[in-house]
Amino acid sequence: MLACELGVSRNTVLTAFDQLMAEGYLEGKVGSGTFVAGAIPDELLSLRNRAAVKHASPRQPRLSKRAAVLPDVATTAKRRRRRPFEPGVPALDLFPTKVWARLVAREWSKVTAGSLDALLTTEPAGLPRLREAVARYVGAARGVSCDAAQVIITSGLQHALEIATRVLLDPGEKVWFEDPGYPAARATLRAVDASVVFVPVDEEGIDVRRGMEKCPSPRLIYVTPSHQYPLGVTMSAARRLQLLETARRADAWILEDDYDSEYRHLTHPVPSIQGLDRNERVIYFGTFSKVLFSSLRLGYLVVPPTLVETFIRARVLAGRASPSIDQAVVADFIDEGFLDRHIRRMRAAYRERQEVLLEAGRRYLNGLLAIRPSHAGMHVLGWLIGIDDQAAARAAAEYEIDVTPLSRYCAEVRQPDGLVLGYGGVTPRQIRAGAETLARALESVRAK
Fold first, then answer.
1. Nearest Cα residue to 240 out of 220, 215, 264, 270
2. The whole model's pTM is what?
3. Are residues 85 and 380 in contact, defined by beta-carbon separation less than 8 angstroms?
């Protein structure tokens, strides 16, 4: 009857009924017929007909102690566009998007051709050929001594640090931490109930002698030796050997965060501490977020052979595996020479952008901010002249400029007022315009 009424075939009506029943809009009753379902799926997916939930009291929910140290990410998450001079942002305008798109398309073409392995969960330690590619890369570029079995792929540096603390640290155990140092890493350590011991940084890196005075028996030592964050100093060879000997005597582990060591502007990259280690006390971290792009969320750990199986079990607990397609694309990017080519291009670009920033600073910020040149990385420090760095950062934000006060990185050691300025993610033209705008912001603070 319905087919005649609508002027369609009987099979069309039956197919429509089958689809509506499969989706839950109709239900069949034996001996009675087909009826509209009592509970329509759309109603179950909508909140329109549900009563609003009212809390019995305005009290805040009871949270764990770990929740109190979680970093505030709301500001970054809400921002829709990058602003000068946000630290840690690479030169996305120079990223080889066409090459990347071609490699991604090639990997997906294997799936469409019937090879569905890439859609399955990979080995928890990571795609074998990416682990091999990383081992070759860090061995050649960073002097890391390892084979592919020691490499574990993670979802970035923070993920790597979380895994390492699960394996190596019990609640309440002491960790040396650079002061000033990376706030997110500090929050991660506090979130696992570590007892963080803040150790000053001088022109040679973390002050090992001062660390021994404050805490002679640390369980972990977290350092950024190749390009200290945020001061930018490189740990001297003598200090590296002193740190390794201290770790050996204290039976401590060194967590070597090598977040952007590829970008040395005038000299070759400094070899890693891991490459000097003869007692297997170093856990080495690396990331592709700074080299490629931040949303990739791929990093890696290099661990001593005796810890590999334990770290892999912890990797499973912290999240089964990183996306297979992304891992395969990065492996191709390394193996086919695109990574080396990209890093060479970025070194030249970052060197140019830092020079532009220094020149713009002399032109627009003279008497307000003294920018110190850096031999590596994607950020520089600027020392404020008679201006509080917190007030300076707030004023800069009002002018759509993103700078970070140096005091935000400090715990116990008070540094002079300064600003951390990232130049990697802004073009030379944007750098000049940003410096001029920052000058107006700083002048507004001084005028108050």
1. 270
2. 0.84
3. no
